[in-house]
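Suppose you are handed a protein chain with no further information: no name, no annotation, nothing but its sequence. What can you learn? This example shows the usual starting point.
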Amino acid sequence: MLIIGIAGGSGSGKTTVVNKIIQSLPKDSVALIPQDAYYYDNGHLSQEEKLKINFDHPNSIEFDLLVEDIKKLKSGMPIDQPIYNYVTCARAKETIPIMPKRVVIVEGILILTNQKLRELLDIKLFVDTHSDDRLMRIIRRDVQERGRNYNDALIHYEKFVKPMHMQFIEPTKLYADVIIPQGGKNRVAIEMVASRIKLNLNDSHLPVVSYTDS
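A reasonable first move is to predict its three-dimensional structure. Written in structure tokens, the prediction is:
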């Protein structure tokens, strides 16, 4: 099993990079684990308290559970991935069953901040995009998907996203094996990374141990 971590700032184009890599690999060979599924359940908080949640701080992620799930997949066991709702700030009662695959991609802004998780990653990528481009994408996403208006999105960016990016996310470039400038627009870099992944798959054949209940 090849475990790949894809990090980068909020709105950097990580999802585009992930999708293009998945499209270039053999069908049904990739399990995708989004960091965002592992935010702590804060559904019990008041609406006022929910607005103060700092989603860009490492303490907002249940890394112990994420690391445990990656280890299970690596050992050939399936996992029950949480489902997180940004509007309610709560986890759903339902989960998503994820089976071990030849390639596991872990994607999220904070994944390289956690040492235990970094140690499980065979390849670490950092998607690097200009702050102006990220800001535009963040505002569009917050308004369309996270229930914020334009002004709230700007306040949230200034109060949380920008300072947390500089304090926690930007420094994790140092841990990356490959930095991909311009996000999903960098076709050459994405193709090079995908080719390297396919080469690793072909060289090792990377068998997956199947888990069945006895």
